[in-house]
Amino acid sequence: MATPDIRPIAPGNTVENGSALSDALLRQLIAVGQVDILVGLPTLNNAATILDVVRAIHVCFTRDFPRLRTVMINSDGGSTDGTPELIRTASFAEEDVVQTSHSLRTHHRVVVPYHGLPGKHAALRTVFAAGELAQAKVVVVIDPSGLTAQSVRLLDPNNINSPTVPLDRTFQTGALELVNTEGRDRDLGIYIQDTWRPIQRLTMTLGVRSDFVRRNDLLRSFEIEKSIQLAPRLGGALLLDENARNVVRASFARVHRQLMGGRDAVAAFSGNPTSSSKTQYDANGDGVFESEVLTPAVSAAVDSQRFDPDFHQPFVDEFTTGYQRQLPLDMSVDLAWTHKTFRDSYAQVEINGFWPELPGQPFGGFGKVDPRSGQIFRLTNRTWAHQQFNEVMVTLAKNMSHNFQAMMSYQHQWQHEEGDWNPTDPARFIQPEAFANDKTIWRNQDPVDNNSLATGNTLRNTPTWTPGSFRVAGTWNAPKGVVLSTSYTMVGGPWTGPILKQLAANDPNVLRFGPARFNGTTPVASGGQANPLATRIRFLYPTRGDGQAGLPYVHSINLKAAYRLKVASTRQLQIGMNVFNALNAGRYTEWHRSGANLSYDPNFYLVQDNQQTSRSLQFDATFRF
Predict the structure, then answer these.
(1) Cβ neighbours of residue 79 under 8 Å, at least 6 residues apart?
(2) Does the pLDDT value for residue 210 go beyond 80?
(3) CA–CA distance, 63 with 484 (Å, rounded to integer)
(4) Cα separation of 188 and 258, whole Å?
(5) Strand (E) or helix (H) holding 88
(6) What SS3 class is residue 160?
(7) SS3 assignment, position 553
(8) Residue 326 contacts residue 240 (beta carbons within 8 Å)
(9) Quick check: is 551 in a domain?
(10) What contacts 95, CB < 8 A, 6 or more positions away?
């Protein structure tokens, strides 16, 4: 539906009801009484689409507002195609609505011709006058034609201040229920753990977690996931001497991805359109829409194929080992090594295209699953590749003694990808030898590895993958209640992501992969569906990891001075001063999101972004009691 015109009714927003409401409408509104939500539906010969609009309003009232008083008012301008009668007699079965609770209110429907001069302004005046009389908290006006989107362009492309004219308009022609994702997820987790000592100095821990995961698509009535995840955990610590000054530890854990609601990649994986639509185009801007493209609804049989029947939760295998030694002067040193393998991450594979069998061959078009559609992606697990992560950390600490404590740490990490390309990644067929990557690699929580040659920011600004960091901090409780502390950090920035270049449109290495467009959701005559292999984008270097630029390390010094004043035996007031970024360093913490890895874009290539916050001074007071 069109974006509703929603207007809260203010107490002082009065309307002259006598000139806007007919006697028939007044009688019906008095019978309805006070309402919470009033939906206005101005119509004039909208019989072709009106039933779906009324159904959508009915679904909304029943499913989303079961406890509110609602009314739909049809203000008709003299339709000759039976529009008012269709609205008046429309009825819907209970199965049309997925209800979360039973409706406790009667949802009223009023159908009347509007009173006054002809035109939509009069119909709107009737609706808002009715809202005033019914004391509605919210009034919503909906377009009855099913218009859902409209693009405009400048009448004069050379004048930014010129008027705009419609370029295209999209109408829903089937059911106007525009919800494209509605599901119910459940994760039942059970964890069992036991700790014991095989010998006096060795402590062992063994555990296992089981997750029973169910995901259901309520909108299309099919099961997305039914899996059982088993995650073992094993750890141990060995004291090398009786006074526990030297300790060796090691652990292994498998951790599965937990459900995250709306931020979860599965919950955000929208389905295909569940209703048909049409788009009208005005190619020359004369106000006449010369062409029309129909987009049919995707059947549930096709939509159910968008989820792998063996779909399950991603997991991380993590192995950690370390050694800790107690030193004189209340100091300790800790050495740790961590290895992680990210497996079976969320991924998507295109299933409607006729992909070539070997690299260098042309793309065969669309229609493998649904001849009426273009690209259709299936949500699955990334079994063809995994990410390896290694980290070394050294920590030197001094516990508080003689009124002084300090800590210093150094961390360095390495990462790379192992395996093969996504089965329908264009790079698999265009530059198959470029897979290696040991710099910025895919985010491991999103299904994004289906197009390594994409120019978006999925392979940029991933702060998980950085070279390392160095940190040192200390605090001295000086005499007379003075507290002095400082910290210094040096953090490595991310890499640019694989460096891309752009070939000429007529380059033979572009043309060899077939025509630029195929028939799909939109016919070629109206734009068509892009050939995913006819892209002009290539990796600039032999592999994805080669040539990636890393940001310089970011340095920061913070200072703090405070004075503690004892005001009672159990009360203390502390007044402090903090200096942040004392060096006033101005380095950047990330690459520009608009294309720092696009070698062909002089505006953004290797452009840094998000500069350090400038030096700042802060005063604070803390009262302890």
Answers:
(1) 43, 44, 45, 46, 47
(2) yes
(3) 60
(4) 11
(5) helix 83-89
(6) coil
(7) coil
(8) no
(9) no
(10) none
Burial class (CB in 10 A: 0-12, 13-18, 19+), 228: exposed
- DSSP-H helix ranges across 403-442: 426-430
Answer yes or no: are the C-beta atoms of 212 and 313 closer than 8 Å.
no
Cα 494-495-497 angle, rounded to 5 deg: 130
With beta carbons less than 8 A apart as the criterion, state whether 571 and 562 touch: no
Under 8 Å between Cβ of 59 and 103: no
Q: Are 388 and 418 in contact (CB under 8 A)?
A: yes
Q: How far is CA 604 from CA 60, 234, 436, 594, 597, in A?
A: 45, 48, 25, 7, 8
Q: State the pLDDT at residue 60.
A: 82
Tokens matching residue 507: 């380059």
Of 512, 613, 486, 597, nearest to 554 by C-alpha is 613
Q: Are 252 and 146 in contact (CB under 8 A)?
A: no
Distance CA 139, CA 52 (A): 20
* CA distance linking residue 292 with residue 257, whole number of Å: 45
Helix (H) or strand (E) holding 346: strand 346-350
CA–CA–CA angle 185, 191, 195 (5° rounding): 165
Identify the three-state secondary structure at position 222. strand
Per-residue pLDDT tens over the stretch 134-152: 999 999 888 887 776 777 7
Q: Please answer whether residues 34 and 135 qualify as being in contact, where contact means their C-beta atoms are separated by less than 8 angstroms.
A: yes
Q: What is the 3-state secondary structure (H, E, C) of 327-350?
A: ECCCEEEEEEEEEEEEECCEEEEE
- Pair type for strands 222-239 and 246-256: antiparallel
**Rounded CA separation 98/218 (Å):** 8
**How big is the chain, counted in residues?**
625
Extended strands (E) in 218-245 = 222-239
| CA–CA distance, 242 with 358 (Å, rounded to integer) | 64
Gap between the Cα atoms of 475 and 480, Å rounded:
15
Q: Are strands 554-568 and 571-580 parallel, antiparallel or unpaired?
A: antiparallel
Domain assignment present for 42: yes
Asked, for residue 10, whether it belongs to a domain, the answer is: yes
Q: Distance of alpha carbon 148 from its chain centroid, rounded?
A: 22
β partners of residue 266: none
Q: Please give the tally of structural domains in the chain.
A: 1
The Cα–Cα gap between 531 and 520 comes to: 10
pLDDT given at position 272: 54
pLDDT in tens, 227-250: 999 999 999 999 999 889 999 999
Question: Where do we find the tokens 């961590």?
Answer: 338
Q: What is the pTM of this model?
A: 0.73
414: tokens are 């390495």
| Closest among 136, 117, 105, 118 to 40, alpha carbons compared | 136
In eight-state DSSP terms, residue 493 is P
Q: Which amino acid is at 143?
A: D
DSSP H or E segment with residue 302: helix 300-303
Structure tokens belonging to residue 54: 């009324």
Q: Which domain holds residue 99?
A: 5-145
Q: What is the per-residue DSSP string for 75-121?
A: EES--SSSHHHHHHH----GGG---SS---S-EEEEEEE--SSSSHH
The residue among 302, 362, 217 whose CA lies nearest residue 521 is: 302
pLDDT > 80? residue 269:
no
Residue 339 lies in a domain: no
Segment 359-386 shows an average pLDDT of 91
Contact in structure between 473 and 406 (CB atoms under 8 Å): yes
The count of C-alpha atoms lying within 13 angstroms of the C-alpha of 539, restricted to the half-sphere facing its C-beta, is 26
Hunting for tokens 């006058």 — which residue is that? Answer: 129
Task: Classify the C-alpha dihedral 443-447-449-453 as positive or negative.
Answer: negative
